[in-house]
Predict the structure.
Amino acid sequence: MTNLIAPPALISPDATLPTLHAQGFAVLDAAGVSALSGCQLPDLLALTPFWADLPPDQHLKDGGRYRRRRHSCFLVSGETLTQVPHRAHWQPLEYNALHGGMHRLFEPVAPEMLATPVWPQLLLWLGQVASALRGPQPWFVEAHPFRIDTTDGIGRPTPEGAHRDGVDLVAVFLVGRQGVKGGETRVFDADGPAGQRFTLTQPWSLLLLDDARVIHESTPIQPLQADSHAAYRDTLVVTLRCGGFPGEGA
């Protein structure tokens, strides 16, 4: 059976903020990410090997073995990026019915990755996007490198289902796909039926989400070949929230 993939409706870099304001999400190709962030694409691609060294997620309540991840937190204040002391990831039940209410402590993002010049450049740019969307202010940032594989025959990028994250801005970078089908992204209005479905395939293409306005999910992945032991989907999810990290402040 042919694996049909619906491409996203890509926008030009100068349409990013108008599109976010108009529909609550926007999709950029890698060239658009590079143009807006100032990050050269070869420098972004050079981060890809770090996804081969992600520890297993020990907190999956469905008993799965399909997710590997790391997690680190930062503060973006103007042109300054500061890594904050390592802390657990927490979400309320209203935003994550499966894992909400749990303090999930993951291994931090590799120091070698954080030391690359492109890393602060990327996060500072996302802070600029958040400030353009909500107004200039400090941003509490959580970065999650994910690998979803097909160890169990199927991998679930969003086992909690369609959801919001309880933040202001969500950035989902597609870092890579290998030997998988599925992984369709679905974005819908939080208060209505309108939505779009598409599949990100280009390395370092990006989905930006105004988390107050839309809900999102990604469908499960399966290997293209039944005996494949190297089928996976890699993403970098970065969330930005004003007022404090989830569970702190406003």
